[in-house]
Design goal:
By secondary structure, the protein is α/β, with parallel strands linked by helices. About 50% of the residues lie in helices and about 10% in strands. Strands 12-11-10-13-14-15-16-17 form an 8-stranded mixed β-sheet, sandwiched between helices. It has a 6-stranded mixed β-sheet with strand order 1-2-3-4-6-9, with helices on both faces. A 3-stranded mixed β-sheet has the order 5-7-8.
Length: about 700
C-alpha cells in the first residue's frame, strides 16, 4: 500500500511508502487525499504525515514527466491538506524536495530530523515550483530569501531551514517517536491550523526596483535561462495578488515552463546523466574491485585536482613527483585551493584540514606498491607515458588498476607498455579536476570488464558523471572539439573578428567563446602539441597559422596579457586588439583567403554543425555508447549550455533533415572533405529515422 492511515491514540498518522524516494505518483497523491479526508471525519486531534524508507517525499514522479496529470493533482492535494480543520504536521527526514516540500509547506507545522534538508530544485529542470512553492515560501521567509532559495534550487539543511522559518522544530529522532511527541505538544497547547495562505507579505519589504535589480543579477548569473526569470515573476505576483490568484498565476507559468524547449533539454540532461554510467553488454554479475588507496603521478594542476577529487570523497591519496621541489609545489597548491574554498564558506577549516590530511606525497615509486588504483597525470607525450606505465607495471601489486589521464593519446599503446593490459584504463579528468564533473572512462581493447565496472562506479563515488568512451584520437570530447576549434580559426581567417565569433557562441549559451577559451588555457599548449605532429596530422594550415603566429609573437593568452585579445593587467578585462586584426589580415593574404562579412547565423551553424557531424561519426564507430552520452560530455566538460541539451539533442530538436541539409550546404559551398555529411546522419535522413529509432534498433 502506497499510503496508509492509522491512529496512534489521539493522533492520525498518514504514512507514505513508495520506494525508493517516495515520489509523488498518482497513487501517492490519491492516497494522501483520501487519508486527509478520513482524518476530518474521525475524532483525531491532529494529523502527522511521515514517510517510510530513507527519505521524505523527494519530489515528483519523473516517470510522469511530459504526460497529462491524473487527478488529484498536487495542488488539489495541498489545498485539502491546508484546509484541514485539524493541525497537520509534516515529519521530514532525508530530503523534502520539489513537490515533496510543497506538500510539507501546505501542512500547518513542519518538523525535521537534524540530518534532513529541504529545497525547491525545479529550476535545474527548467521549471518552477507549480504547487504553491513560489506563493508560500515568500510569505513564510520573506521575498529576498525566497528568491535566493528558489532561483538557485539549492537544498537547505535542517538547522538553516529552522533559522529561516521554513520548518518549526529540529529533532534528533527517532523520527516517528519525535514527530508524535511534537504533535502531542501542539495538541496540548491548543495549537490551531496555521495556514501560510493567510499570511501576507509587507508591501514595503521589496519593491519593483528591487525585483528589477534581482532580474538583472539573474541575467548574468543564469544567462539565457528562462525559468529563473519566471520564478521572479511568480514571487512578485505573491506580493501583488491574493493567494488564490497567485496560485493560478504560478500554475500558468509552470505549464509554460514545462512545455518549453529549455525544460525539455534540461530534463533530457537529467536522464542522460543517470543513464551514462550504465554500460550495455557489461555482465551485471561482475563485481567491482575495491578502491581504498589511490596514487596520482604528477603533482601539477591536473594531478593535484585529481588528488583533491579523491580526498573530497574520503579516499586516501599518494601524490608522486620526480623531485621534492615539484612535490612541495604541488602540495602547496592543494593547500591554497582548500584555503580558497574555506574563505568562500564552502568548507569549514576542520573539513578542509581533514581532506588535506588524506593527501600525502612521495618521490619514490616503491611507495605505490600497495595502492588499488594509480592515475598517471604527466606530460602529454607517449614516450613519457610508456616509461611511467612500465615502471608502474614493476612496482604495483597484482590487481591494481593502472589509469591514464591522457586527453588524446592511444590507451592501447599505453597499455602495451605493461604486462597487464587488462588492468589499464583511461580516466580523463577535466580541469580543474576537483571542480569539473565530467569523467571520460576510456575502454581499451583489452581492458577487463571488472575494471570498467570499477571505473564507472568510482566516478559516481567521487561525484563525477562518468561517460564510457572508446579509443580514438581525443576520445569523445576532444575529438569533437577539434572540429569546433577549426571552425573558429577558419571563420577568423575568412573575415570574422574574434569578438564576433565569441559573441555568437556565448549568445547561444556557451560558457565562453572558443577564442577566449584559448586565451584562458594558454595558446602555447596547442602550439606545443602541434610541434609533435607531422604536416599531414596538423591539417589545413589556415586552421592554425593565426594561433601559431600569435604564440611566436609572445602572445600566449591571459598569462602574458595578450592573445586573441588584450587583457587589462589589473582586472583581466579583455578588449579587441588591432594588432591581432593585422595578423589575421596578413595570414589571409598569405593563404589567398578572400575576406568577407559573416552573419551570426553562419558562424553559429559552422561551429555547431562541426560538433554534430563529428558526433554522428563517433556514434557510428561505437566510440560513444549513445547520443545522450555525447550530450553529457559537452554539457559537463565543454561549457555547452545545459538548457540546449547538448549537441545531439540540439540536432534532434532542430530535425535531422535540416541538420543534414545545413551540413551538405557547407560541404558544397566550401568543397572541404570534413564537411561531407557523416554516413550515419545520411542513412537516418534517407530512411526518415531519428536517433531514438537508431538506438532502439541496436537494443
Amino acid at each position: 500500500m502506497l499510503v496508509s492511515y492509522r491512529r496512534v491514540d489521539e493522533l492520525a498518522v498518514i504514512t507514505i511508502n513508495n520506494p525508493p524516494v517516495n515520489a509523488l505518483s498518482h497513487g501517492v497523491r490519491k492516497g494522501v487525499l483520501e487519508a486527509i479526508t478520513t482524518a476530518q471525519a474521525d475524532d483525531s486531534k491532529a494529523v502527522v504525515i511521515l514517510c517510510e524508507g530513507r527519505t521524505f517525499i523527494a519530489g515528483a514522479d519523473i516517470s510522469e514527466f511530459g504526460k497529462p496529470i491524473e487527478e488529484p493533482s498536487l495542488p488539489q492535494v495541498n489545498a485539502a491538506i491546508e484546509a484541514s480543520a485539524k493541525p497537520v504536521i509534516a515529519a521530514i527526514h532525508g530530503t523534502a524536495l520539489g513537490g515533496g516540500f510543497e506538500l510539507a509547506l501546505s501542512c500547518h507545522y513542519r518538523c525535521a530530523l537534524d540530518s534532513a534538508a529541504v529545497g525547491l530544485p525545479e529550476v535545474t529542470l527548467g521549471l518552477l515550483p507549480g504547487a504553491g512553492g513560489t506563493q508560500r515560501v515568500p510569505r513564510l521567509i520573506g521575498v529576498q530569501a525566497a528568491l535566493d532559495m528558489i532561483t538557485s534550487g539549492q537544498k537547505v539543511a535542517a538547522e538553516k531551514a529552522l533559522a529561516l522559518g521554513l520548518i518549526d522544530r529540529v529533532m534528533a529522532g527517532p523520527l516517528e517517536e519525535a514527530a508524535l511527541a511534537y504533535a502531542r505538544e501542539l495538541v496540548t497547547t491548543g495549537a490551531k491550523p496555521r495556514r501560510i495562505s493567510d499570511a501576507s507579505i509587507p508591501a514595503e519589504s521589496f519593491d519593483s526596483d528591487a525585483f528589477e535589480a534581482y532580474r538583472k543579477v539573474l541575467r548574468k548569473r543564469k544567462r539565457g535561462q528562462e525559468a529563473p526569470q519566471r520564478i521572479v515573476d511568480c514571487i512578485e505576483a505573491a506580493m501583488e495578488k491574493p493567494f488564490d490568484e497567485g496560485l493560478t498565476y504560478e500554475r500558468s507559468r509552470f505549464v509554460e515552463c514545462s512545455q518549453s524547449e529549455q525544460s525539455a533539454a534540461l530534463r533530457h540532461i537529467f536522464f542522460a546523466e543517470r543513464q551514462a554510467p550504465k554500460v550495455p553488454g557489461l555482465d551485471k554479475s561482475v563485481a567491482s574491485r575495491s578502491i581504498e588507496r589511490v596514487a596520482v603521478i604528477g603533482a601539477g594542476t591536473m594531478g593535484g585536482g585529481i588528488a583533491m577529487s579523491f580526498a573530497n570523497a574520503g579516499i586516501s591519496v599518494t601524490l608522486l613527483e620526480l623531485n621534492q621541489k615539484g612535490l612541495d609545489a604541488g602540495l602547496a597548491l592543494i593547500g591554497k585551493n582548500y584555503a580558497t574554498t574555506v574563505s568562500k564558506g564552502k568548507l569549514s577549516q576542520e573539513q578542509a584540514s581533514a581532506r588535506q590530511a588524506l593527501i600525502s606525497g612521495t618521490t619514490d615509486y616503491e611507495a605505490l606498491a600497495d595502492v588499488d588504483l594509480v592515475i598517471e597525470a604527466v606530460f602529454e607525450s607517449m614516450d613519457v607515458k610508456r616509461q611511467v606505465f612500465g615502471r608502474l607495471d614493476e612496482v604495483c601489486k597484482e590487481g591494481a588498476i593502472l589509469a591514464s589521464n591522457t586527453s588524446y593519446l592511444d590507451v592501447n599503446e599505453i597499455a602495451a607498455a605493461t604486462s597487464r593490459p587488462q588492468d589499464v584504463v583511461g580516466l580523463h579528468f577535466f580541469s580543474p579536476a576537483n571542480v569539473m564533473r565530467l569523467l571520460e572512462v576510456v575502454r581499451a581493447d583489452k581492458t577487463a570488464e571488472d575494471v570498467i565496472a570499477t571505473a564507472m562506479a568510482l566516478g559516481k563515488r567521487i561525484g563525477k558523471v562518468p561517460v564510457l568512451a572508446g579509443v580514438c584520437y581525443g576520445f569523445i570530447g576532444n575529438r569533437m572539439l577539434r572540429q569546433y576549434a577549426r571552425e573558429a580559426q577558419l571563420c577568423m581567417i575568412e573575415g570574422a573578428e574574434p569578438e564576433q565569433i565569441d559573441g555568437v557562441l556565448t549568445g547561444f549559451g556557451m560558457a565562453m567563446g572558443p577564442l577566449a577559451v584559448g586565451d584562458l588555457a594558454g595558446l602555447d599548449i596547442g602550439y606545443k602539441a602541434r610541434q609533435a605532429l607531422t604536416d599531414e596530422q596538423k591539417g589545413d594550415p589556415r586552421s592554425y597559422c593565426i594561433a601559431d603566429t600569435l604564440v611566436e609573437m609572445g602572445r600566449l593568452g591571459q598569462k602574458t596579457g595578450a592573445g586573441y585579445y588584450r587583457y587589462d593587467p589589473e582586472t583581466r578585462a579583455r578588449s579587441a586588439d588591432p594588432e591581432v586584426l593585422a595578423v589575421i589580415e596578413a595570414k589571409a593574404r598569405q593563404h589567398e583567403v578572400e575576406s568577407r562579412v559573416f552573419s551570426d547565423a553562419e558562424i553559429l551553424d559552422r561551429h555547431l554543425m562541426g560538433l554534430i557531424n563529428e558526433g554522428f561519426r563517433i556514434l557510428e564507430e561505437g566510440i560513444a555508447q549513445r547520443p545522450s552520452d555525447i550530450d553529457v560530455v559537452y554539457v559537463h566538460g565543454y561549457g555547452f549550455p545545459s538548457y540546449r541539451g547538448g549537441p545531439m539533442f540540439y540536432a534532434s530538436r532542430r530535425g535531422l533533415k535540416a541538420v543534414y541539409e545545413c551540413i551538405e550546404s557547407l560541404h558544397k559551398s566550401t568543397g572541404e572533405a570534413h564537411w561531407a555529411p557523416a554516413p550515419l546522419l545520411t542513412a537516418l535522413v534517407e530512411t526518415n529515422q531519428t536517433l531514438d529509432d537508431w538506438m532502439g534498433s541496436k537494443s
